[in-house]
Amino acid sequence: MRNGMLLRVTIILAIVAAINGYIGWHLKVFLSHLFGASFHPWLYWPVFWIVAFSYVIGRFGTKVLPPTLTRLLNIMGSYWLALIQFGILILPVTDVAIGVLYGASVSSASYVPILGWIVIAIVLILLLAGSYLARTPVIRKYEITIPKQAGDWKQLRVAVASDIHLGAVVGNRQLRKLVKHVNGMKPDLILLPGDVIDDDIKPFIRYRMGQTMRELQAPLGVYAVLGNHEYYGGHIPAFVEQMEQIGIRVLMDEVIHVQERLFIVGRKDKSAEHAAGGRKSLVSLMEGLDLAQPIIVMDHQPYQLDVAAAAGVDVNLSGHTHRGQIAPNHLFTRRIFELDWGYLRKGNLHALVSSGFGTWGPPIRLGSQSEIIELTLHFTSNDREEG
């Protein structure tokens, strides 16, 4: 198994290196035409490869490099991940144009700088637009009627924010936007369906992000579940402790009965199936629950919605997909998940998948936008359902 994992990692790194080499060669050709004899490949390539692998260096160098340097490498590497995708999409088109111009016997001294500046302009526009969509959250509003009674509650306003990804890239500035928007909703309940942190918990602690999160206010409390990135980081006990210190309850295959009116089922992430302790099935978690009362499930990855529907879940909240984060990645998430973003009615189940508040890797979104869900639940004893 270890040899198989090593082989997969080697193949992935080889592919990444090949893609970066492809991009690096195009950039070298452009710069050599731009600067002529003053361009020095012996200096260019070392700098290029450091930038190209800065994300990897920053991630795995936390134990030996200063925190400020690792944060700089992470930020630089995150943006480079976006540039890799842009390069994959744009440069083949550029190569076709070069082939046509070369075949027409046009001098490369004429078309290389022009094509280079066109590519740079397109990339800058994409970066600016993507940064805006990632840094400017929208509030998605959903109203759902559940044909069940919840004591004397007629309705419940729930704020949902998944995939915050707090860390070296998404920090207190973006987190303060979350607090402002969520508290502005005046929610009764706040739910965080996984990936609150982005792998490493050290930036969360170092930059005192918990003090900002502490400002989230809801009379019925704030609850979270684990996402795959909490498992990737491997600091789950420390994360749970940090959350408890600021009054956020992390549900790990647990059920909370809110004021004896509504059940919140918090599942461990699907990643836990391969970790020590595993994770319980949804059916076992719901065993003994009063199905006459509303049931909300938080499950970070939106798998097996049919199981949730059959088990009697009313609302299933997930994230994880980011809706691909950068188009056209949404074409892949759409094929992987039954619901990769938005709302789906499945029997009596109302499934919601958020594109997430934060970002993984580059703080860029194209074809998706940073979002917070404002979910209004209406309760009725009637069999007829509206909304």
TrEMBL record:
Pfam families: Metallophos. The chain crosses the membrane at residues 7-27, 39-58, 79-102, 114-134. One of its GO terms (molecular function) is 3',5'-cyclic-AMP phosphodiesterase activity. CDD domains: MPP_YkuE_C (cd07385). It is an enzyme of class 3 (hydrolase). Its EC number is 3.1.4.53. Residues 156-323 form the Calcineurin-like phosphoesterase domain. It comes from the Bacteria. Keywords: Hydrolase, Membrane, Transmembrane, Transmembrane helix. PANTHER family: TRANSMEMBRANE PROTEIN WITH METALLOPHOSPHOESTERASE DOMAIN, TRANSMEMBRANE PROTEIN WITH METALLOPHOSPHOESTERASE DOMAIN-RELATED. This is 3',5'-cyclic adenosine monophosphate phosphodiesterase CpdA. The gene is cpdA_3.
